[in-house]
Amino acid sequence: MSAASSYTENKATIRARKLRDLRYGWAFSAPFTILFGLTFIVPIIVSIYQSFFKTTTAGGLYGGGKQITKFVGLDNYVAVVTNEQFWQGMGRVMLFGLFQIPFMIIAALALALVLDSYLLKRPTVFRLGYFLPYAIPGVVAAMMWMYLYSPQLSPLASVIPINFFDKNIILASMANMTTWTFTGYNMLVFLAALKAIPTDLYEAARLDGCSGFQVAMKIKVPMLTNAALLTVLLSIIGTIQLFNEPTVMRAGQSWMGNSYTPMMMAYSTMMTSPGNPNMASAISMTMAIIAALLAAVYAFVQTRGKR
Fold first, then answer.
1. Are 86 and 186 in a shared domain?
2. 58 and 196 share a domain?
3. Fewer CB atoms < 10 Å away: N or C end of the chain?
4. Residue 88: how many CB atoms within 10 A of its CB?
5. Count of C-beta atoms within a 10 Å radius of residue 231
6. Is 53 helix (H, G, I), strand (E, B) or coil?
7. Local structure of 229: helix, strand or coil
8. H or E stretch at 67
9. Could you tell me the sign of the dihedral formed by the alpha carbons of 56, 57, 58, 60, in that order?
């Protein structure tokens, strides 16, 4: 057999092996890909499609006819961006995020640094304890905090004489719920990034006489910028979608209304009879665009600052 034919045969064998591996890869990922498409991608496409239509009832002033769905272009989006209640709700969630996100990220970073240090003898127990609030469903957690906030029921009422449902305090009350729930989750993101840092850097720093605090501030924290970017981006998106906490708190605070946050507005638009899925889709898509813009601006500033 000549060298040329042997090379051609080996090349064909390698190509066949790669093709087989590719098929196996797609076969193993197919269940997730199909489920992800059906539960995530398809609803997004349907929502985008619905946002460009409007359903009306034929039959003149008093109706009585069949419902007609017609294409209205950007009319639903114009109605959303010109709705004062939408921007009031957006202003509330942005104010919420301005003080809640930094506090939560700093707390998560501090917990991760402590768990990665030699200060704790059983870090697994503390790691599980910090993460447990995230495992509690959001509605259940909000109801639990409602009990703790209620002056008639809470065992803390006599210790902390604060009206947590006051109009000027209620955002901070919701921020406390969210921080309690998601700090442990963000801590795990930071902790995973800390475990990926080569330990040789720590040993070299200690040989140079650096203390544990200096190692944390000069080596660990600067190498967590990518993890911080991820946690802040996820927090921005989650803040725009704030729903569980204000919805549960509204049960006893009717003054909040159905449009206290944009997500509540989209939900009430869809569920209040007669429901309007087209307008609800337009509200949801507008929220997604705003969240994407805020995340893109933060990512741009963060990456530009690293240059």
1. yes
2. no
3. C
4. 15
5. 24
6. strand
7. helix
8. strand 67-71
9. negative
Q: Cα–Cα distance between 298 and 228 in angstroms, integer? A: 11
Q: How far is CA 163 from CA 40, 108, 142, in A?
A: 40, 27, 16
For residues 193 and 223, give the distance between their C-alpha atoms in angstroms, rounded to a whole number. Answer: 8
Prediction pTM value: 0.84
Do 49 and 152 have their domain in common? Answer: no
In a domain, 221, yes or no: yes
Cα dihedral 227/228/231/236 (nearest 10):
-150
Q: What is the pLDDT of residues 184-229, one digit of tens each?
A: 999 999 999 998 888 888 888 888 888 878 888 888 999 998 899 9
Structure tokens at 255: 């003054």
Structurally, how many domains does the chain consist of? 2
- Cα 97 off chain centre by: 12
The pairing of beta strand 53-57 with beta strand 67-71: antiparallel
Q: Do 222 and 81 reside in the same domain of the chain? A: yes
Axis crossing angle, helix 225-240 with helix 277-305, rounded to the nearest 10: 160
Is residue 92 included in any domain, yes or no? yes
Element (H, E) at 287: helix 277-305
Q: Say how far apart CA 77 and CA 124 lie, in whole Å.
A: 49
**Do residues 246 and 204 share a domain?**
yes
Domain that holds residue 261: 72-304
User: What's the CA gap between 59 and 56, in Å, rounded?
Assistant: 10
Using one digit for the tens of pLDDT, what is the confidence trace for 53-75?
998 776 555 555 677 888 998 99
Please indicate, yes or no, whether residues 128 and 42 belong to a single structural domain of this protein: no
Q: How far apart are CA 55 and CA 106, in angstroms?
A: 47
Do 65 and 133 belong together in one domain?
no
